[in-house]
Write a structure and sequence with these properties.
Cofactor: Fe(2+)
Shape: globular
Pfam families: TsaD
Number of helices: 10
Oligomer: single chain
CATH topology of the largest domain: Nucleotidyltransferase, domain 5
CATH superfamily of the largest domain: ATPase, nucleotide binding domain
Helix content: 40-55%
Bound molecules: 5'-O-[(R)-(carboxyoxy)(hydroxy)phosphoryl]adenosine, zinc ion
Number of domains: 2
Structural class: alpha/beta
Protein name: tRNA N6-adenosine threonylcarbamoyltransferase
Strand order of the largest sheet: 3-2-1-4-5
Main location: cytoplasm
CATH architecture of the largest domain: 2-Layer Sandwich
CATH class of the largest domain: Alpha Beta
Strand content: 15-25%
GO molecular function: iron ion binding; peptidase activity; tRNA N(6)-L-threonylcarbamoyladenine synthase activity
Distance between the termini: 25 Å
Largest sheet: 5 strands, mixed
């Protein structure tokens, strides 16, 4: 089975061809990060315009690299939600046109189902059910993966997503966008116990997350130090932020696993590239004899392979769309 996956939900135009769900024949990503960097974040209109320019050559290269023709495909999967609406619309409309022209089924795919599926590519032995922590720039979800295409959300963020918190703290500390990776690098030489930062608990749902208090604490700390003419060791603050986020994510994930009887855990999304998060979860899982699956760093961020893989499972489940398919900025998993 050959599925083409197209992704354009944020600032990466990406496409990939997957054979039999997890065998990735090509994986082409055109990133706009350098252009958005100068504005300190993704500018939605610029993102849409770049997708418009890039989607055809990226899809063409994905087919060429895979040595596959349009006629040989079994289906065309596309990220239809959630994401930046103008960005999503480019991929969705392109996929609709392609599916119509080639006479192939169109498979609408959820971006977070894609992130989760990145684990199947690296670890085909991973099979539902299991618990997955999905942490990206826009989401922090604790998800029960019931089947390849059915999910139940146990917890979610009440405010900032984990990636957003990393990026906002990094920005306040003077690192360029996207700051998560810079904060991760700086943490390597910092003291994670240098600063005590808030770890809020949500009374109504112990699995929910809240990261805006941590971000505010970091901004206030930097502001107060500046007012007093004091200098703060950026590496120490970075390491403290990373340790706090890692602890919160780990505590919630392990608690949910214990309380719902899961001994298999996965992590997915851009923040699953974070070294502190990976180490902290690995340690906690080792302690309890839980098995932890993590995507390789190359598949943590947005890419087409994860959509081709998730789209393959959606195809099997009979999920289809016709030419009335629309994109949506928000959508439950
Ligand atoms: O999944 P993703 O590529 O895009 C969304 O769907 O949002 O996630 C991007 C997020 C950004 O906030 C980025 O800073 C964060 O993932 N990220 C990291 C690291 N690498 C990417 N955050 C912390 N440490 C990293 N090493
Ligand atoms: Zn993503």
């Amino acid at each position: 089975m050959l599925i083409l996956g197209i992704e354009s939900s944020c600032d990466e135009t990406a496409a990939s061809v997957a054979r039999n769900h997890t065998e990735i024949l090509s994986n082409v990503v055109s990133s706009q990060v350098e252009e958005h960097k100068q504005y300190g974040g993704v500018v939605p209109e610029i993102a849409s315009r770049r997708h418009c320019e890039n989607v055809l050559p990226v899809v063409q290269k994905a087919l060429d690299d895979a040595g596959v023709t349009l006629a040989e495909l079994d289906g065309i999967a596309v990220t239809a939600y959630p994401g930046l609406i103008g960005a999503l619309l480019v991929g969705v409309n392109f996929a609709k046109g392609l599916a119509l022209t080639a006479g192939k089924p169109l498979v609408p795919t959820h971006h977070l189902a894609g992130h989760i599926a990145a684990n199947y590519i690296a670890h085909p032995e991973l099979k539902p059910p299991y618990l997955c922590l999905v942490v990206s720039g826009g989401h922090s979800h604790l998800v029960e993966v019931l089947t390849y295409t059915k999910f139940r959300i146990l917890g979610r963020t009440r405010d900032d997503a984990a990636g957003e918190c990393f990026d906002k703290c990094a920005r306040a500390m003077g690192y360029p966008y996207p700051g998560g990776i810079h904060l991760d690098k700086a943490s390597q030489s910092g003291n994670p116990k240098a600063f005590s930062l808030p770890k809020p608990k949500i009374a109504e749902n112990a699995y929910d997350f809240s990261f805006s208090g941590l971000k505010t604490a970091v901004v206030n700390l930097l502001h107060n130090a500046q007012q007093k003419g004091e200098t703060i060791c950026r590496e120490d603050l970075a390491a403290s932020v990373q340790a706090t986020i890692s602890e919160v994510l780990t505590e919630h994930t392990i608690r949910a696993a214990v309380e719902h009887g899961y001994s298999t855990i996965a992590i997915a999304g851009g923040v699953s590239a974070n070294s502190g998060v990976r180490e902290s979860l690995q340690k906690a899982c080792d302690k309890r004899n839980f098995t932890l699956y993590m995507p390789p760093l190359s598949l943590c961020g947005d890419n087409g392979a994860m959509i081709a893989c998730a789209g393959s499972y959606a195809f099997d489940a009979g999920i289809r769309a016709d030419s009335s398919l629309n994109a949506s900025a928000t959508m439950e998993l």
